[in-house]
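To assess whether ligand presence alters the predicted conformation, the chain was also submitted together with flavin-adenine dinucleotide. Input:
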Amino acid sequence: MTDFKAPIDDILFSLRHVAQAESLAEWDDDIASDILTHFGQFAEGVLAPLNESGDRQGARLENGKVRMPDGFGDAFAQLAGDGWQGLTAPEEHGGMGVSPLVAAGVSEVFSGANHSLQMVCNLVPGAISTLLKFGSPAQCDHWLPKLISGQALSTMCLTEPGAGSDLSAIRTKATRQGDGWHIDGEKIFISGGDQDLSEDILHLVLARSGTAEDGIRGLSLFLCQKQPAAVVSRIEEKMGLHASPTCQMVFTDAQAELIGEEGAGLQAMFTVMNHARLDVALQGVAHAARAAQLSAEYAAERKQGRKPDGAPALLSDHADVQRMLDSQAALAIGARAMCHLTLVEIERQSSAPLLEILTALCKVFGSEAGTQAADHGMQIMGGYGYLSEYGVEQVWRDARICAIYEGANGIHTRALVTRGLRAEGADAFDDLVCRLSGDQTPPALENWRTIRMQLQTLKDPTPYARRYYEMMSNLLQQAVWLRIRAVAQHHPDPAYIERLATHVLTQGEAPA
Ligand SMILES: Cc1cc2nc3c(=O)[nH]c(=O)nc-3n(C[C@H](O)[C@H](O)[C@H](O)COP(=O)(O)OP(=O)(O)OC[C@H]3O[C@@H](n4cnc5c(N)ncnc54)[C@H](O)[C@@H]3O)c2cc1C
């Protein structure tokens, strides 16, 4: 298997020129470049070499405690020691105060090198934002230094056996006792519910402080420290991400503190979830980029068949293989650009309805870009792609969850045909598409406008959610690639970018 190569040049091209991060007052190009280069070296040298061994060994539950695979503890110690856990935290709290755009680049590289470890570490930025937004001064003083230094990692405890996509069904009970609260109930699928990397763990637990009839208004958010009353009862056997412990947790009279207002738990949890959704989109981008790298290197070396002139051919000489290689690269670059543009819109404080549309599009398109590119990779490598040895099989397995967690993709496509059809968001999306396209018109624009109007007249447009998403993501990809083509000269290989742009804009290779 070829060594992981962090796609730093592509990330910087996307941030600087496609998303125009340089237009933001707080953007510091030298810092961005230094941080990404430095993290890329760390990912290539320390994180990526553990990816395959971690997949083989997996996390284990021994005597009620989770053991991470060999080498993960040392890697995390280096990560935390170098300050990466506090990348986006404000400097006054001991963090690096780096722009979320740079952090997005770091996160993508982390996921490409070792998705399992990234998942355990990368709920921390969302937890830090939640504390800064909703925490009391005492809660911030207690937890921020621990999270920033890596003394603590954090989890997000939402899912229950009867409450997956529908969080209004949460039954885990929070009871007020004196000044504090106690939690009783069962949570499942909790990433990093326990691990042996950090001394402490901050569990952000969504629990019912009101009655079942209160629905989501009866849910509050709690901080719950690692303690004997919050135990891991099992870790799940799963298809991929073997090194990431997916934990079933039982809370029995576990001490907890309310964070934010009682009954406003879901709203507070969205601070973590909004960060996590774009992060999941970038996990998909990372898998697409890694699949593209593995496939391109393999296809450039393996001799098979003949060229039209009869000379011996490499796999990459075959038109159909080249088509798939181009699709992989275009998926990675296009999905990354979508995420970076969305992050810039967030920094510009664009309207909430537009951000909701863009986040949904990124989540679905990014997560599916990962599996589609991995699938192309397996086809490109033939039988060897199906073997463990060449790595693309692990990419395929690890990438698949991205379409399921952080809101299954069907929920995001549904949001596009419900709230996303309202004028404020849809008009702002139309404006954004036109802005990105410059003086050109994306071929899919007029049809999207017509269908949007037709859907607005329907009482229940949800059966069309997937098809509407496909139209909308295809349109956004066309606009994004018009922008990418317009700035291609800033990429280290402009001709390659031009070719990919032609591939997308003329062959409609945006994924369905
Ligand atoms: C590896 C892994 C890690 C995870 N990490 C965490 C974690 O750290 N914390 C946590 O709380 N949870 C975590 N989860 C749980 C994950 O978020 C849930 O699996 C997910 O929310 C879906 O819930 P469910 O599995 O119960 O599926 P269901 O809710 O039963 O949904 C099944 C399918 O039905 C469809 N569907 C359901 N509702 C709708 C709807 N309203 N509109 C359209 N389609 C719908 C979707 O296609 C969905 O995929 C993790 C899961 C896994 C496998």
